[in-house]
Specification:
By secondary structure, the chain is of the alpha/beta class. The protein has one domain (about 1-40, about 170-480). Helix content is about 50%, strand content about 15%. The chain is built from 14 helices and 16 strands. It has a 10-stranded mixed sheet, with helices on both faces.
Length: about 500
């Protein structure tokens, strides 16, 4: 029994690592091709062109009182000529709405719109009386959660393209220019969505919503997540985009074709993984309609976000991610090995099913069985030590590869000691894998128990320095969800 189990684990390990290696090689080729092609592009021409499409930036916000003013200022200063910023106040219980009204001279306007997507009641639409802020629109609505707020923003915006972001994220000034580029290229396929690299802002110096200096996180948990994010975005999503199997555009920042989103039914409030579920539903809709489409990925760092710095908050986040993954996969299980959905059905979906969802469950079974063998003194130590060395060496090599990708491409970490800190973290990270397995098991158990909602996510906030040298800290984020109420009217005047 022990020999059979050992062989099964070894074979599964080889298959998993083989897939990681293949994706890494494919990403390297695709990234090199992208950088070579991009070196000839003048993004300033998009800014100067009157033909640049109008883009709506939709940012749901709940209880972001302490950072909302700087966050809005950052969004309004993005380097693009034709855009609007829509802040959705999702029934905040702090003074966020009062602060933003006062800071930007907001007044309620007579605004007609259609509830083309279901969302909680919109209490009012506000615009600024100051011409300097004519790009800004603020929606005040009943609390309904992030997905519900995004649906409200889509109802209000009039652009053909919209960007969904987290209100507390920090956006690169030229991010819109890079995101919109795939939609402007001449193709025989309709681009329905595009995402980019999300980076970690913990321990960076922030001033008035802008990053003054990029630093490696001081705490070990965020530092390990830097490695994780770098691998996922540079070695994973880049490859899946080229293979036409991309299933996820991060909720922190992504751009979408508004018409396709509306036809597909908008964001779902029935899952905590609304970002993945939307991409899956859009792709499924386009395939079933027989329309040629494409979901693209931009390998440039476009957005910076804060990640949990303590184990308790990270547990909430990762168990929520697992629940969202399971909900999305089960909702769209029809895609699995269905040639009708192309590479998504034959490659992308099976990968996420077997390697992202089931692999942690198999790993947990392996941990339990190994403990049993140790207790019964039946463990064949030479084999398991060899397996451990193999797994550890591959994991460190993969992380080192990701760091190398970062350094030879975008080189955001300028100091050599920051790179050395990342390499040191790569040596530690494999010992943290059992914790990730725990997150997955707990998330699956919560799904089986029928747990819903985002729960509470504690954040330490962004840290920067004012001119006087005093530190400033951001706000603690709280995510809420509520049962949606379908409006009884299809058209509404907010006055």
């Amino acid at each position: 029994m022990e020999v059979v189990f050992g062989k099964v684990i070894f074979i599964l390990t080889l298959i998993l690592f083989g897939s990681y290696l293949s994706l890494g090689i494919f990403s390297a080729i695709a990234l090199r091709k992208y950088l070579r092609k991009n070196s000839y592009i003048n993004y300033n021409s998009l800014v100067l062109s009157p033909l640049s499409p109008k883009i709506s930036i939709i940012a749901p916000a709940f209880n972001e009182s302490r950072t909302i003013i700087d966050n809005v200022r950052t969004l309004l200063s993005l380097y693009y000529n034709n855009f609007e910023v829509i802040i959705v106040n999702d029934g905040s219980t702090d003074d966020m709405f009062d602060k933003i009204k006062k800071a930007y001279d907001l007044t309620r306007v007579n605004y007609y719109f259609d509830y083309v997507l279901p969302c909680e009641r919109i209490r009012g639409v506000y615009k600024s009386t100051n011409p300097s802020y004519n790009r800004l629109t603020v929606i005040d609505k009943v609390n309904g959660g992030k997905a519900d707020s995004l649906n409200a923003g889509i109802n209000i915006c009039q652009s053909n393209l919209f960007v969904s972001i987290d209100a507390d994220s920090i956006i690169e000034p030229d991010s819109i220019l890079k995101l919109v580029k795939p939609f402007l290229e001449e193709k025989d396929r309709r681009v329905i969505g595009s995402g980019g690299v999300i980076r970690i802002v913990n321990s960076c110096d922030i001033e008035r919503g802008h990053i003054r200096e990029i630093k490696i996180p001081r705490n070990i948990l965020p530092r390990l997540q830097v490695l994780e994010y770098t691998r996922a975005f540079l070695l994973g999503r880049m490859a899946w985009s080229q293979l036409d199997g991309l299933m996820l555009i991060s909720g922190a920042m992504g751009i979408f074709d508004r018409d396709t989103v509306i036809r597909a039914g908008g964001y779902s409030i029935k899952t905590v993984g609304e970002d993945m579920e939307l991409v899956l539903r859009m792709r499924r809709f386009m395939s079933e309609q027989g329309e040629k489409y494409e979901v693209t990925y931009i390998p440039d760092p476009l957005c910076w976000t804060e990640v949990p710095s303590d184990l308790k908050s990270m547990t909430r986040q990762r168990t929520r991610w697992t629940r969202g993954l399971v909900e999305s996969l089960l909702t769209h299980r029809k895609i699995l090995f269905n040639y009708k959905y192309g590479r998504l059905g034959m490659m992308g979906y099976p990968y996420w099913l077997f390697f992202e969802w089931m692999a942690p469950l198999i790993a947990f079974a392996g941990f339990v069985y190994t403990i049993f063998l140790i207790i019964t003194q039946a463990l064949y130590w030479p084999f398991y030590l060899l397996l451990f060395i193999f797994v550890y060496s591959f994991a460190v090599s993969l992380s080192t590869w990701a760091i190398l990708f970062e350094e030879i491409t975008f080189h955001k970490y300028k100091k050599k000691r920051d790179v050395l800190k990342l390499l040191s973290a790569a040596l530690i990270e494999p010992f943290f894998y059992p914790v990730h397995t725990y997150f997955a098991i707990r998330g699956n158990l919560q799904f089986l128990r029928g747990k819903k909602g985002w729960g509470k996510a504690e954040r330490s906030g962004f840290v920067g320095k004012k001119k006087g040298g005093a530190e400033t800290t951001g706000t603690t984020r709280v995510k809420q969800r509520a049962t949606i109420v379908q409006p009884k009217v299809s058209r509404q005047n907010t006055e």
